[in-house]
Design a protein that fits this description.
mainly alpha, 92 residues, 0% strand, 71% helix
Length: 92
C-alpha cells in the first residue's frame, strides 16, 4: 500500500486556482509529473529494469550460484530484488 494522497475535489480545485483555469495543459503536465515521480511508479520502473536484465541477454553466469541458493531457500520477493540489484551493479 502506498502513502500517496488521493486528490479530492477540493485539492483539484486548489490546483486549478493555483495554476489557472485558462491553462489546462499546465494542470495536466503538473499532474503527469506528480504521478511519474511517485514512489509507486518509481518502484515499478525499477522492477521493469530487473525483469529486463533477468530475461534479457546479460551474462548471468556469475549470478547462478545465488540464483540456485534463492530457489533452495525460498527467497522472498525483496530478497530476489536485492540479489538481482547486486548482480546488475557488478555488471556496470
Amino acid at each position: 500500500m502506498t502513502t500517496e494522497k488521493i486528490l479530492t475535489r477540493t485539492d483539484i480545485g486548489s490546483l486549478i486556482a493555483e495554476i489557472g483555469q485558462e491553462n489546462p495543459f499546465e494542470l495536466c503536465r503538473a499532474t503527469e509529473q506528480a504521478v511519474l515521480q511517485s514512489k509507486q511508479v518509481q518502484a515499478w520502473k525499477r522492477d521493469a529494469e530487473r525483469m529486463e536484465w533477468y530475461f534479457g541477454g546479460a551474462d548471468k553466469s556469475p549470478w547462478m550460484p545465488q540464483y540456485l541458493r534463492g530457489c533452495n531457500d525460498g527467497w522472498s520477493v525483496d530478497q530476489w530484488r536485492m540479489s538481482i540489484d547486486a548482480a546488475m551493479e557488478k555488471q556496470k
